[in-house]
Amino acid sequence: MSLPSLRLTASLAALGAATAVLSAPAAPAKAEEGMWTFDNFPIATVNQTYGVNIDQAWLDRVREAAVRLQGCSASLVSGEGLILTNHHCVVGCVQDLSDAQHDYVKNGWMPATREDEKKCPGQTAEILTDITDVTERVQGAGQGLEGAAFVQARNAEAEKIQKEGCGDDPKWTCQVISLYRGGQYKLYKFRKYDDVRLVFAPEFQAAFFGGDPDNFNFPRYALDSGFLRIYEDGKPVATPNHLTWNPNAPKEGDVTFVAGNPGTTQRLLTVAQLEALRDQQLPISLIQFSELRGRLLEYSTTGDEAKRVAVDPIFGLENSFKVYYGQQGALTDPAFMARKRQEEADLRQRVAADPELAARIGDPWADLERVAQAQRDLYLPYRQLESGPRSQLYSYAKAIVRAAKERAKPVAERRPGYTDADIAALGRRLAQNAPISNDIEEIYMAFWLSKTREYLTVDNPQVKALLGKDSPEQIAQRTVSGTRLADPAFRAQALAMTPEQLAASGDAMIQFVLANDDAAQAIRTQWESAVSGPTSRAGEKIAQARFAAYGTNLYPDATFSLRLSYGSVKGWTYQGVTVEPFTYIGGLYERNTGAEPFNAAEDWLAAEDKVNKQTVYDFVSTNDIIGGNSGSPVINAKGEVIGAAFDGNIHSLGGSFGYDGNLNRTVTVSTAAITEALRNVYHQPRLLEELGVE
Amino acid sequence: MSLPSLRLTASLAALGAATAVLSAPAAPAKAEEGMWTFDNFPIATVNQTYGVNIDQAWLDRVREAAVRLQGCSASLVSGEGLILTNHHCVVGCVQDLSDAQHDYVKNGWMPATREDEKKCPGQTAEILTDITDVTERVQGAGQGLEGAAFVQARNAEAEKIQKEGCGDDPKWTCQVISLYRGGQYKLYKFRKYDDVRLVFAPEFQAAFFGGDPDNFNFPRYALDSGFLRIYEDGKPVATPNHLTWNPNAPKEGDVTFVAGNPGTTQRLLTVAQLEALRDQQLPISLIQFSELRGRLLEYSTTGDEAKRVAVDPIFGLENSFKVYYGQQGALTDPAFMARKRQEEADLRQRVAADPELAARIGDPWADLERVAQAQRDLYLPYRQLESGPRSQLYSYAKAIVRAAKERAKPVAERRPGYTDADIAALGRRLAQNAPISNDIEEIYMAFWLSKTREYLTVDNPQVKALLGKDSPEQIAQRTVSGTRLADPAFRAQALAMTPEQLAASGDAMIQFVLANDDAAQAIRTQWESAVSGPTSRAGEKIAQARFAAYGTNLYPDATFSLRLSYGSVKGWTYQGVTVEPFTYIGGLYERNTGAEPFNAAEDWLAAEDKVNKQTVYDFVSTNDIIGGNSGSPVINAKGEVIGAAFDGNIHSLGGSFGYDGNLNRTVTVSTAAITEALRNVYHQPRLLEELGVE
């Protein structure tokens, strides 16, 4: 499915997708539709529909076992801090722990003892403990302000609330989350762990059998699972509130729950906003991702080490590409857009019919059409100059430069996100050591510079300032080879420097970022003033219109915060072809061609005579999920874990804008298959024992 | 501008762009708008507007000096067969004449004597001699037929007309051209030359200074010019009807004519057709071109020889990408689409107001909306399976396989395009020897196969048949290394074989194509039946509606046939920035950074003290042109050549769908600059003498 992750969340935010409200406006959510918050779950409906007996205690148990990772979801599955998630959520860590001599991505990570479990650089795990309504405080903070000032006042108030909730304690995360596109704000408080170790990862070719061609498709034969463990003070954390491991696959029609962190949905963007996505933001993303994909794919053919270091970047890029491609498919489907127009017309009609409401909210749709014009003009400079390249080294430099500039100001005048505590937290993130491929960094830098020149043109003053007399390739080479930012010790030093010291540091990447940062921040300010500020304000008014028109028994758009969806195990039929809900391990051997990416992993080939080919491998269900849900526990009515969701089918990609119960499906690797693999392919008795199966 | 060419023409055809009618439906064409046929040029309007005195004799002289190349335009500029065109129209030839030891692309091609001029493989030159109306015959042929049968009957009648006009004489080309989207059909007869030799090409970096970033932009400093010569019986052809070379640049406001072969415009596609382009065909092209661009760019960094062989493929791809990107810009501009909707509504209203007309034409707009649905379903399989890869070896194999299959049938049952004479002509084309890069061929094959699998999915039966148990890379390697089709002698042998002999030939590429050709032809038949046939029929009805509503004093959409446009030398103003109409040679040295692609060519650097920096280099004018016009002579009121058109500005890319006289500009390299370069940079007295300047 998706590294989607902070990267996805962030990049969708850059796409201008503020926050959303609801899918089916004129009617309550259809059966199985909805990514419900834990404080507003339709218990009665579910119990009635499926003949089950869930209650608040059931919900609390699930919540306490649900884990948020960077960009992914997960769950506690033993009393000793063991976490189940997807392989693709840990593959970055596996790559970080690998080197040219030890390719754990290819061969898998299977330490013999708990002592050999290694820390994943930068990985954190968060468990939601409390939800508090803070709507009035946040909405009050923006009152009477416009544009960038409005955005800043809101952000500052949210920061204040977070600070009050968690202080600077690194064991807690407090996050103010905008729900219903600004209709509600809630403070989510998480217990946070930052020593997260890699316990088990299968071979890449087992986890990602079928590769990009099979991604977002079904039938599927992928063991997309892995295990982590949370530690504190050097010891595994005791986690009595874990999910029970059920090693048996469900039956067709069985009820399924998915608890996780769907990243972003945009189900109630206005038609003008959807058209801006369709006509500008998604096309540019698809085009840029495609060219970069071509560069990385070709680079990966130049040698074994190039292939090794490119695996994870290519996976992330191809995955995002397919997500956007699927989204574009929905937005260019005339029937889909006709429904969106109809929904919008219905809501506007209801507003028009209620003079008091109409007077209170004005015409936010017209406001958003005006925003669309500004967005059209500003999008490319904002995207290129402020969002920057994928380069990790550039990101380090940018974070350090901005921290230095803000720290030089009095505290009250700093931008949100730059309190001393924030900068200290940044320091902890910068201290994480992860390997960096200079080749790939250079590709990222040269690509970004050449696209910036292409889209903004050579004669643009900011482009002239960026490039000077050099080519993109020369700057890429100079900044990547001329920086010490790959070294965490130097990052710590640099973070302590003043802007003047940074300028004198002689570090090529830092100097490059420093020279161009004012222009980048200027375009950011313009964007906030003309686009994100007015968008946020209009979104809030539309949310008020929705609450007034349809009531509040609705689920909010996804915001990478904990949600619960319900559904059942079920295949689907499309254009006359019916897809069954299960695959079996035996099917892997039938689909194996020996040629990448349809070559079965070596350990699986070796184990062919030992594995039970009748075991359910992957299955699909009607749960409503989206990128960010990767690794979510799939749970039966008893609250036991029966799999890890790792993908949606191709139809589910339009789910960003609307759910279709006939076609949208969640794809899950079964605990049955994981158990079988641990027993007969990878021979991991210590894990089986910990999971309570023999 | 564009290799646009047959490649562009063909690929736009694949985009489903049938044929078009007119830009400004409700009013006569605006001043300067229009790509007029030579038999319907608005002489009076032009003479009146510009105070000039052109007449039929003037038009005939220009027509007789205008030359059509593959995908480009050109003109005769001496009495001994000398042809002026663009460098980018001859760079393929320059590359063909180069090898790893002789890089004429980089260093230029400047033979000392006429005897050293070398034949360009496959290049032809055609001069229009007659135009005959054949509308009734062609329209009559389709009567009473539908779908694929309709398309085939029309094509067969057009072939018959062509055969009657030119027989099998290789010195003549007869072509039935559809004008006004099927409103008229005309037989164009050309004198054809197939011994075309390369006379002069400057250094690549002089011709294409600024590279892709400057392409379709202005100000510009590019010597995008080159010379060819037509030979017959081993001697230069005597061409008394040539244009006179005027070595002086025009002044601002001077009238300018451009005679050439604009490839394709789509100015009166219906809104449904434009939306299909916007939502499916252009996005897929942009995405695929981008990924392939990334692959080729990265490949070109792997060594000097890789860089050399990739120059032309990358240029062609980036150029096409930018064309499509510009087109997409127009189609996603809300104001532009609103005008298109308004125009369509106006025409439909006029039809509705005329019951006789309405009864005669029915509702072709509704027909096209139904086509859009079929097109949506068939486009990807048609594009992937029938259009095939960019690979030259694959193209050879496909041509040979199809010829063999058709030749096995009785003449009356063959598809159009496969008479014995057609197959003989194919044999002559296959005999042309051009170097082939196996590396790039493999990239093309692997890319195409992987995209076919991606878009049609692994479980599609045709994809299964294509790939079998192999990866795209394995098939690419096997077919490219296992074919003898790079050898013209083997191509001649293969063309003589039966399908059975081809199957037994042991040639990997031929066998691969043979195994998949039935499926490709099947999807082609479906496409003709459900898409191109009904589109053509509806287009014709809309053309009738237009003639009825607005009269016949209109220009037809571009069809890569000879047209004349008029305008004047003029800059433009956009978003407050004014661009002057001229650049001067001195500006080249100011823009030179030394870094690719802004590094001035070596001979120009060496000549800096000798050249006259006040010479006009490039200039812009308001002429209405499009891809295919590359190399067109720009002509003054006296009928003298004053430059070679080589590009449009960025705004002109929307010109595919409509002309905007405020912004659309033609970009031309002046004869003044070419003269100065021949004199003081490249020292070519023999050419200067032939051009009549000392």
Automatic annotation (TrEMBL), chains A, B:
Keywords: Aminopeptidase, Hydrolase, Protease, Serine protease, Signal. InterPro entries: Pep_S46 (IPR019500), Peptidase_S1_PA (IPR009003), Peptidase_S1_PA_chymotrypsin (IPR043504). This is Dipeptidyl-peptidase. PANTHER family: PERIPLASMIC PEPTIDASE SUBFAMILY S1B. Pfam families: Peptidase_S46 (PF10459). Catalyzes the removal of dipeptides from the N-terminus of oligopeptides. Belongs to the peptidase S46 family. It comes from Brevundimonas albigilva. Transmembrane segments: none annotated. Its EC number is 3.4.14.-. Residues 1-26 form the signal peptide.
